[in-house]
Amino acid sequence: MAIAEPLQHVRERTNEASRPATRSRSRPKEDVTDDSPSLPGRLLVSLLVGLSIWVAYTVATGKYYTPRSDFGWYLGVVGSVTLLLMLAYPLRKHVGFMSRWGALKYWFRIHMIMGIVGPTLILFHSTFHLRSLNATIALFSMLGVVISGIIGRFIYTKIHYGLYGRRATLEKAQEELAGLSNDAKSRLHFAPRVEQWLQSFERDSKQLDRSFTSHLFSPLTIGLKRIVLGFRCRRELRKILKAERHPEFRGGASEAIQLASSYLRECQRVAQFSTFERLFSLWHVLHVPLIYVLAACAIFHIVAAYMY
């Protein structure tokens, strides 16, 4: 007659009971937007990019039109208007009477689209050649704004829930990390080395030096550590789960690896959250003057083109 349940059964029930509690700490659905395109969407984007590169090469090497021809002139006009429409987003954001004109995320999406379409049309307007000093200055100021926008987009996603989601906070990120930490500790008990590596990474990421240099290089240093440690965890978990099955992971090694990888990414996110907040504030201070410089250069270029 058994007087005690086997330890494995107790662990199974404990794990099953603990999972809802940890999952309840996941990101709220209203904060998250699915920004990753589907496979057909990625193929379509790749096709359009490849087609654009081919057309750009054809235009640059051929003599189909010039910036002063009718077609080239209309490309410049449409591109300039498109760049002007990019200002709708900051106006919607800061002008009081526009605050009720739709959700801000849709204006931001238009801002992103115009930021791609407008510079592309201007590049085709120039036929990818530098012909005058004022055109060169206007073109490089536009490219500076584009590069700045790409950098800002990358930083933006680090402190928001997706590209069009709500602004995240350090407290929420720490709460989500606590939920993943509890989940990892309860389900990865059969891999003590993996548990030790994960706990060590979390401890080291929380003890970072908060100097300016540390903030500047932390995305690189912590990211490299996470990649190396993720590789070690995958190798260890595959070796363990290949030899024996565990009820905590009915999906096999891939499910365990996904849990460990999510935990490492969340540790990195919490450790770098303040860094990206600082970088985003600094980027915003630099990006806005670049837009005014671009507007001034574009106006000067248009006036010079009409005068001469």
The biggest beta sheet reads: none
The percentage helix is: over 70%
SS content category: mainly alpha
Oligomerization category of the chains in this entry: single chain
Counting H and I runs of at least 4 residues, what is the number of helices?
A: 10
Roughly how many Å apart are the termini? 102 Å
* Overall average pLDDT: 75
Give a count of the beta strands, DSSP E runs of length 2 or more.
0
Shape: elongated
Q: Note the run of SSEs as H and E.
A: HHHHHHHHHH
How would you explain this protein's 3D organization?
With 308 residues, the protein is mostly helical. It folds into 2 domains: 62-166 and 284-307; 168-282, Topoisomerase I, Chain A, domain 4, CATH 1.10.132. It has 10 helices and no strands. It has helices at residues 7-23, 39-61, 70-85, 88-94, 104-125, 133-158, 170-187, 192-206, 212-243, 253-307. The longest helix is centred in the last third of the chain and has 55 residues, at 253-307. It is elongated, with a radius of gyration of 26 Å. The chain starts with 6 loop residues before the first helix and ends with a helix.
Question: Which keywords apply here?
Answer:
308 residues, mainly alpha, Topoisomerase I, Chain A, domain 4, 2 domains, 0% strand, disordered N terminus
Element layout with pairings:
Layout: H1 7-23, H2 39-61, H3 70-85, H4 88-94, H5 104-125, H6 133-158, H7 170-187, H8 192-206, H9 212-243, H10 253-307
